[in-house]
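Bump. Still looking for ribonuclease H structure tokens.
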Amino acid sequence: MSQETESLEWRSVKEALAGFSAEAVRSTLRRRPAVVAYTDGACIKNPGGPAGWSAILVPVERLDVPLSEIPAERIEAHGHIPPAATTTNNRAEIAALLAALSLAPPDRPLKIWSDSQYTIKVATGDYKARMNPDLWQLFHWLVNHRTAPLSFGWVRGHAGQALNERADELAGLGAWQDDRAAYEQWLRSQQPEARSGAVTRSEADQSRSGRQAADDGVRPSASELALMRDQVQELLTLLESGRIALKDNERQFLYNMAQRLRYPDFVPTAGQRNWLKGLSARARRTL
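Sorry for the wait, here they are.
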């Protein structure tokens, strides 16, 4: 692939992995019969970027043994994707898959864990890859060079799973080019007390029509936040697979909610809650 046509995401992966010793990677990941990987992507402005990706690979005895702690024996990789019209969170998530597949020994069974339902469902063939075909082509090329089985698992984001949380941190650092001070300032800016609380006109309209259903500023329970995360992820998966169509402001709302819901202390407004419920109900009627 020429430099002119090479995507920013694939270039980011190649540049990051060039800093690894192939012998050290092989030595670490071949110490056990199998490998698990935790991947993540982050986009500061979705779409537009900048973005980052991460992949953590761990040698294991068996793929079905859950890892509750971060083991010392692991390979960590992450990279930066510069701002561009094409830079999105989903492309960062796919870049993380490409990195994991590039690092993992092709003759060892590999299981990739991700908190992106879109990424998993397209990777497993549940949904067609109608968007980002260039990256999915690379994905299939890497998969076809494997001789051992490949499987996927979904992990709920920001639910305390140690390797998922570490992958999230590395992807965020990648987006900020390893400027930890800028990354931590960005994290603080995502907290409710750091935001102005301003909403779009569409959100405000939804809020006015639905105040009887929920009060602005009422902190939802953990289960309510989990449900909202699942609704957003499912809608984004359906959107990216082409199974539903949304207006530009609805797309942007979902992208913004996906970012905000990454933080357990996010307090959604009544307008945000009702708009999300309305989009989910509309999607169910469409399918």
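Residues 200-286 form one domain.

Edit: fixed formatting.
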